[in-house]
Amino acid sequence: xxxxxxxxxxxxxxxxxxxxxxxxxxxxxxxxxxxxxxxxxxxxxxxxxxxxxxxxxxxxxxxxxxxxxxxxxxxxxxxxxxxxxxxxxxxxxxxxxxxxxxxxxxxxxxxxxxxxxxxxxxxxxxxxxxxxxxxxxxxxxxxxxxxxxxxxxxxxxxxxxxxxxxxxxxxxxxxxxxxxxxxxxxxxxxxxxxxxxxxxxxxxxxxxxxxxxxxxxxxxxxxxxxxxxxxxxx
Length: 234
Hints:
Layout: H1 2-8, H2 14-19, E1 26-27, E2 30-38, E3 45-52, E4 58-64, E5 70-73, E6 80-83, E7 89-98, E8 106-114, E9 119-126, E10 145-146, E11 151-153, E12 162-169, E13 175-179, E14 187-189, E15 200-208, E16 221-224, E17 228-232
Parallel strand pairs: 2-16, 10-17
Antiparallel strand pairs: 1-2, 2-3, 3-7, 4-5, 4-8, 6-7, 8-9, 11-14, 12-13, 12-15, 15-16, 15-17
């Protein structure tokens, strides 16, 4: 975290340093984060996240660039619900926004409008970068039947600090059967018994630069592989 903050410190003004005295992603209205995502088959996109416990008070959440041009607004009718230990519900909103060819590094902001008329601003510092997707993946995508793998591996991505593997069972309608923790290395030993004989699975590798960074949020930029298919011996 400290290394990442140092690398971008030359881009930050004195007023920005005042903001960094606390985490600017968190506000009294909720949490905001913005990512630059290299997803298969499409140009770079912004993936925005907003989560809140006070969802009944939120009227709108709109994202703006450093030059105050509008990136887009969250659809507050579409959300996921996370039940917390204290039995309160947190609503999580995701939004995908197109990028343009001249996006700039800097502070992007979410303008959160409350039903009572109050406006709250959350911020996220963005470095516009494209992270390559993982390559030389084992097992590779193939319809050839293979022995049950004990591990998944891929070529290291120099910019990536972390990876996450997600596996789906296609005999179960594409249901997610396993998600790894964040991995610091380019290999993952599979839990015993997870992959069955006669199975039909897909898996993907999500790479990201940092994790829970004070300046950049959960992460700044990341990539996702296409779904990789493998079948196991019956």
